[in-house]
Amino acid sequence: NRCNEIIQQAQTESGKLLSVLDIGGGFPADYSEQIDISRFCQPINEALQQLPDHIQVIAEPGRYISAAAMTSISRIVGKARRNDKTWYYIDDGVYGSFSGMIYDHAQYPLTVYSDIPELEEAVIAGPTCDSIDVIAKDILLPPLNIGDLIIGEQMGAYTSASATDFNLAKRAEFIVINRGDIAEKEHQTISA
Fold this sequence. Notes:
Elements: H1 2-14, E1 20-22, H2 37-48, E2 56-58, H3 62-66, E3 72-82, E4 85-90, H4 100-103, E5 110-111, E6 120-125, E7 134-141, E8 149-152, H5 179-191
Parallel strand pairs: 1-2, 4-6
Antiparallel strand pairs: 3-4, 3-8, 5-8, 6-7
């Protein structure tokens, strides 16, 4: 609505006909709760309806589009007992793929696979030995072992852009999978 006022003011006061409005980003990803994007965009769409017809609107919904495009698979490389909690050290951290925790305050959904029903209070930390390289504190996990996997979801937005090789911890390797190719191969295997 404020942009519409500025567009009208520019035309009235200076005769300039503005033609493009970039509404920017800020479209959310589903990090911890299901996002109803239609509901989220409702006030935006209502305001856009008030713009003059000649205005071209562009947006930057990068996070909303790209977050789900990447899954992180980390391996537990160390384990310790500290202050009555099990600490699991993984081969990735906030200086790597989880950098969005620092820069964007993102809380990536984490998954572990285990048949053990018992849960214990745990911490998941990165490999750098830096005090802020902590992925999750005070979470309940089944007992895990070195070599077990930690799966991070919604990792496609800005995670690799700000990753570093801090303390010689190498950045995550990317493996590109075209799910369409996988579905086609599965279909061929099933029908063979």
